[in-house]
UniProtKB/TrEMBL annotation:
<dbReference type="Pfam" id="PF03063">
    <property type="entry name" value="Prismane"/>
</dbReference>
<dbReference type="GO" id="GO:0050418">
    <property type="term" value="F:hydroxylamine reductase activity"/>
</dbReference>
<comment type="function">
    <text>Catalyzes the reduction of hydroxylamine to form NH(3) and H(2)O.</text>
</comment>
<comment type="similarity">
    <text>Belongs to the HCP family.</text>
</comment>
<feature type="binding site">
    <location>
        <position position="466"/>
    </location>
    <ligand>
        <name>hybrid [4Fe-2O-2S] cluster</name>
    </ligand>
</feature>
<dbReference type="InterPro" id="IPR010048">
    <property type="entry name" value="Hydroxylam_reduct"/>
</dbReference>
<feature type="binding site">
    <location>
        <position position="279"/>
    </location>
    <ligand>
        <name>hybrid [4Fe-2O-2S] cluster</name>
    </ligand>
</feature>
<dbReference type="InterPro" id="IPR004137">
    <property type="entry name" value="HCP/CODH"/>
</dbReference>
<dbReference type="InterPro" id="IPR011254">
    <property type="entry name" value="Prismane-like_sf"/>
</dbReference>
<keyword id="KW-0963">Cytoplasm</keyword>
<keyword id="KW-0560">Oxidoreductase</keyword>
<feature type="binding site">
    <location>
        <position position="15"/>
    </location>
    <ligand>
        <name>[4Fe-4S] cluster</name>
    </ligand>
</feature>
<feature type="binding site" description="via persulfide group">
    <location>
        <position position="377"/>
    </location>
    <ligand>
        <name>hybrid [4Fe-2O-2S] cluster</name>
    </ligand>
</feature>
<feature type="binding site">
    <location>
        <position position="211"/>
    </location>
    <ligand>
        <name>hybrid [4Fe-2O-2S] cluster</name>
    </ligand>
</feature>
<feature type="modified residue" description="Cysteine persulfide">
    <location>
        <position position="377"/>
    </location>
</feature>
<feature type="binding site">
    <location>
        <position position="430"/>
    </location>
    <ligand>
        <name>hybrid [4Fe-2O-2S] cluster</name>
    </ligand>
</feature>
<keyword id="KW-0411">Iron-sulfur</keyword>
């Protein structure tokens, strides 16, 4: 195997024996083979000018299947690959056999680096397109770019041409994030600031992890009158801010913290867990029988809940399992990483921009002197306590916007308010970077300047490919002076990193105090 797509890859270089995530060589090789078959499907569709809704779905879900911590089930990947080959044959079996696919990891170091950057970006965008498609939303430009991107991965390009492609991709991913925002808000309403309890009530319950709001909505509807409570986990936390989800009284709170702690947090809970998307870790034997998967998520031996062609799912098995286990006999006190018992979420672009006047007045009055966007993926890397310490050191006259699961490092801290504005504003899931960008653009417009002229600094943590595509979008929008960590991507060569540092002032994080001094020019 050869895999260097996540931040925790072995030795900061590549996993070649077994994945740090738990992925076995057979699985890694099958995922690479699946990517190659998806490239063939894209090439064939383009050459024969035959694009179908089936091929669209296969490409998006197939790429998502190969994203970090999504699918560890070899048989499921083989079955999916069979469906891809069947679609190829429907277009033209003879032409499919003629298509040659490049060796993804072979060649000049810089070219492999740039090819990988585009491919991993496509994997990340596939996750967002998948969620939007589950709600019935698609965009032709985004769909066409999946075909284009996969075909370009299979081409030889100069360094300049690769950079141009990657920047073009960043713009398309921005459109994809906008599409998902539209899908979520039109389906479930604009998020509103909401307080979420992390304590667990007595009685049966289900924990829902991942990102798919449509899955959560169906589960809430099916559990509404069963006596089973539902708790969000990790990136599902922002669901509490959506009115059409929060209306369910059995959406009872949030369980646990970020994804990397699941092996200890799920150890002894008397409840089943549903994984709707990525962030699944190999489960321990003590709780493996309580894990359910759905959609593109897979692990050998687990119960998988499929959907009908209409996108409906029957969650009866997990509901009955929750009732059988019974939950806790008494209310259970829980806490976040820093000991807090309440979290606040729901500060999407609609909520924040409704307070734009107050924020602008606070900036003009000198009450808010700087805004930090501290967000991204969490992980088990020791250096990730940087983000907790960084937020703790933010001055009292600054705001902290946050999103994705990186916020669990500090979202239970009480940093107070500025003129009635909470100092920590949780904007949602990783895909809600669109909200952060929209707010930044609105502030830049209000102050008649560019984003780079605002008193705004982005401090990002990355783990997997969705963070990669967000970074590429920010770069394509010309955002500079970002800080990224806890390490730079292993798939980015020294030459590529040098280019980003020189042209976009991309800064690797150092120490919280040192970076804070540099940002605030102290």
């Amino acid at each position: 195997m050869f895999c260097f797509q996540c931040q925790q890859t072995a030795g900061g270089s590549a996993c070649i024996n077994t994945g740090v995530c738990g992925k076995q060589p057979s699985t890694s090789n099958l995922q690479d083979e699946l990517v190659c078959e998806l490239i063939k499907l894209a090439e064939l569709s383009k050459n024969e000018n035959k694009h179908s809704a089936v091929a669209d779905r296969l490409i998006i879900d197939g790429l998502f299947t190969t994203l970090t911590n999504v699918n560890f089930d070899d048989n499921a990947i083989k079955e999916f690959m069979g469906r891809v080959k069947n679609e190829q044959n429907k277009i033209s079996r003879s032409e499919a056999e003629k298509i040659q696919v490049i060796d993804l990891w072979d060649g000049d170091t810089d070219i492999v680096s740039l090819r990988s950057t585009l491919l991993f970006g496509l994997k990340g965008m596939a996750a967002y397109a998948h969620h939007a498609m589950n709600l019935g939303y698609t965009d032709n430009e985004v769909l066409k770019w999946f075909y284009k991107g996969l075909c370009e991965v299979n081409r030889e390009h100069s360094v300049t041409e690769w950079i141009e492609l990657i920047m073009e991709f960043g713009q398309v991913n921005f459109k994809c994030m906008e599409l998902l925002d539209k899908a979520n808000t039109e389906s479930f309403g604009n998020p509103v600031p909401t307080r979420v309890n992390v304590d667990i009530k007595k009685g049966p319950f289900i924990v829902v992890s991942g990102h798919d709001l449509n899955d959560l909505s169906q589960l809430l509807e099916q559990t509404e009158k069963t006596g089973v409570n539902v708790y969000t986990h990790c990136e599902m936390l922002p669901a509490h801010g959506y009115p059409e989800l929060n209306k369910y009284h059995n959406l009872a709170g949030n369980f646990g913290t970020a994804w990397q702690s699941q092996q200890t947090e799920f150890e002894n809970i008397p409840a089943p867990v549903l994984f709707t998307t990525n962030c699944l870790m190999p489960p321990r034997p003590s709780y493996k029988d309580r894990i359910y998967t759905t959609s593109v998520v897979g692990y050998d031996g687990m119960v998988h809940i499929s959907c009908t062609r209409a996108g409906k799912k029957d969650f009866t098995p997990i509901i009955k399992h929750a009732q059988k286990l019974g939950g806790y006999e008494h209310d259970r006190s829980m806490s976040g990483i820093n000991g807090g018992h309440m979290l606040t979420t729901g500060f999407g672009h609609s909520a924040v921009l409704s307070q734009a006047g107050k924020i602008i007045d606070a900036i003009n009055a000198g009450h808010v002197k700087h805004i930090f966007l501290v967000g991204g993926c969490d992980g088990a890397h020791p250096g990730r306590n940087y983000y907790t310490e960084f937020v703790k050191q933010t001055p009292m006259d600054t705001l902290v916007l946050t999103l994705a699961c990186g916020k669990y490092r500090f979202n239970d801290l009480d940093l107070g308010e500025i003129d009635g504005i909470p100092r920590i504003l949780d904007m949602g899931q990783c895909n809600d970077s669109y909200s952060a960008i929209k707010v930044a653009l609105a502030l830049a417009d209000a102050f008649h300047c560019s984003i780079n002229d605002l008193p705004l600094t982005l401090v990002l943590s990355w783990y997997e490919q969705k963070a990669v595509c967000i970074l590429l979008t920010l770069l394509s929008l010309g955002v500079r002076n970002m800080y990224i960590g806890p390490t730079l991507p292993a798939f980015m060569s020294e030459t590529v990193v040098k280019y980003l540092v020189e042209n976009y002032k991309l800064n690797p994080i150092t120490a919280p105090e040192q970076d804070m001094d540099a940002i605030l020019k102290r």
